[in-house]
Structures are given as structure tokens and as C-alpha cells.
Amino acid sequence: MKHVVKILSLVVAVSAFWITLLQAAIVPQSHTWLLPIYFVVSLGCYGLLMVGVGIMQFPTCPQEAVLLNHDIAEAKEFLSTNGIDIGTY
């Protein structure tokens, strides 16, 4: 819920800034109408950056890999004792 409030407050702040620029005519009208597009593109770039950082910092868990291999071997043994052929994968 906190993220929703943060995102909505950011949208309100950007909208207020955009309306202020439209009203004050500080920036030329042609550039002001492009601000929402710039905002969406910037938000997309930020999202891609956060996904990339998350992938680069993804933790490896060697203990969990060992447990997973043990579970796979146990499942293969259980299936082979029940007559189910799973091949030699």
C-alpha cells in the first residue's frame, strides 16, 4: 500500500508541475505538451534499470541447489520404484 501512495503522490506532483508550466508559459507550449511523454519514457528507463540492477545482484544459494538436487534424486528414486520410467535426464 505504501508504494501505491508513493506513486500516486509522484503522479500528482508531476501533474501539478506540468500544469504550472502550461499556465506560466515558462517553457514553450510545444515542449510542455511533450512532458508526459518524457515522463513515461523516463519511468520505463528507470524500471529497466531497476530490473537490471536486481538481476546483477541476484543472490546465488549453493545450499539450496544441493537440497534441490537431493529432492530431484529422491523423486526419481520414488518414481522408479513405482514403475514410472522417467528416462535418463
TrEMBL record:
<keyword id="KW-0812">Transmembrane</keyword>
<comment type="function">
    <text>Stabilizer subunit of the dolichol-phosphate mannose (DPM) synthase complex; tethers catalytic subunit to the ER.</text>
</comment>
<keyword id="KW-1133">Transmembrane helix</keyword>
<feature type="transmembrane region" description="Helical">
    <location>
        <begin position="34"/>
        <end position="55"/>
    </location>
</feature>
<comment type="subunit">
    <text>Component of the dolichol-phosphate mannose (DPM) synthase complex.</text>
</comment>
<comment type="pathway">
    <text>Protein modification; protein glycosylation.</text>
</comment>
<comment type="similarity">
    <text>Belongs to the DPM3 family.</text>
</comment>
<protein>
    <recommendedName>
        <fullName>Dolichol-phosphate mannosyltransferase subunit 3</fullName>
    </recommendedName>
</protein>
<dbReference type="Pfam" id="PF08285">
    <property type="entry name" value="DPM3"/>
</dbReference>
<keyword id="KW-0472">Membrane</keyword>
<dbReference type="GO" id="GO:0005789">
    <property type="term" value="C:endoplasmic reticulum membrane"/>
</dbReference>
<keyword id="KW-0256">Endoplasmic reticulum</keyword>
<dbReference type="InterPro" id="IPR013174">
    <property type="entry name" value="DPM3"/>
</dbReference>
